[in-house]
Amino acid sequence: MKNRSVAPEPMKQPPALQLISATERDGKPLWRVQLKRQGKTRQKRFYHHLHGGEAQALVAAQQWRDQVLAEHPPYSKLDHARKHRSNNSSGRAGVYLLTMKRMRNGRLAIHQLWQARTPEGVTPMRTRNFSVRKYGNELAFRLAVAAREGFEQELALPASANCGSAVYAAY
User: Fold this and answer.
1) Is the previous residue joined to 124 through a cis bond, with omega within 30 degrees of 0?
2) pTM value surpassing 0.70
3) 106: left (phi > 0), else alpha (psi -120 to 50), else beta?
4) Which strands, in side-by-side order, build the sheet including 20-25?
5) Cβ(20)–Cβ(58) below 8 Å
6) pLDDT tens digits along 121-140
7) Are strands 95-104 and 107-117 parallel, antiparallel or unpaired?
8) Per-residue model confidence (pLDDT) at position 17
């Protein structure tokens, strides 16, 4: 049996230093604030010598960070779930057209369906499938979109309510 080492958990920064790191550039000490919101990285450096010392530079860095966070709040879970990805060809997040090919009685059978998947954060992960043969392409797509919207509503519910079972609430 091999002795497996467990990586230590990363240390959390105290709230006063969230998104702020101490570093130096060209031998000059500074505080650097860096954060990413809506796909854009925002960064600013606060040199100790330009702000009258380390403590004053830290206060300026904290004030700038707090101002940027207030102007650009993070995405909500629902906004993140609805974000359109570049690899999405259906035009709706979490809705996919699946084409399945099988050999049946020596013939190739092709079956298409629209599938809605739960967004990240909803447990357990579930899918709803709507057959193109049964509903037609347009109606199957609309049903899948409606199912996805139902899954997205679960993000707004408390953690114990969005899993459908009390067993999952403990996790």
Assistant:
1) yes
2) no
3) left
4) 20-25, 28-37, 40-47
5) yes
6) 777 889 999 999 999 999 99
7) antiparallel
8) 85
